[in-house]
Amino acid sequence: MFSVAYVDRLRAYEIGKIATFFERGQRVLEIGAGTGMQALALSRLGFEVTAIEVPNSTYADDRVFPITDYDGRHIPLADASVDVVFSSNVLEHVPDLPQIHREIRRVLKAGGYCIHVLPTHSWRLWTILTALPDAVVYAIAALPQLAPRAMPNRPELDRLGRAWQKTIGQVGGQVVQRRHGEHGNVISELWLFNPRWWIRNFTENGFVVVHDEPMGLFYTGNKLFGRALSFAMRERLARVLGSACHLFKVAPA
Length: 253
Fold this sequence. Notes:
alpha/beta; globular; 8 helices; seven-stranded mixed sheet
């Protein structure tokens, strides 16, 4: 998987398009704020941003913005208190979607709406297809760490043990893939991440889809090619291979 820093680079690149869906002076709630990088970017653009995240988030040690911890089910804000609810690559990780949709409707002011960015079936497909070659590249790069550097002694044996354990874990985790979100499996996510599935989910939970469009950037859940692909190239690839994420603007029905 990409490092936290590179994930933040991807999200920073996307924030320009996301920000066009906000109006100056609005109070924005970001759910699942991660490091808070996008909340920080939005606040610098003049928006009042409140960010919440579960305390056991992968990004808990890398926060760059004040974030309130919450239980993942109950938003710690008053009724009708925010203009926009924003999430980026979060809803697929929510175990109880009807509950969080109810909470979102509760905290939205009259006339409020949501901007949700979600991974697509294209992202899921290309993450599956690039897993094996990415694992091979990783294993080859790790070879120098797996070879003895000195005569066998306790520190060297400990170092080798850690190197082999890390490599086996990384390569094994890529070859034997697990689901990305909270529902289904690797294969069913090809449907669960389809924009049509999300449109149906929003509709069933009391929202109207006002607008939706691809984010227009290609990437996978693997490091293959990583920084070797510029953002301009990723935009061109998205037109052919599909966008990694899709944006939805939804409002309470």
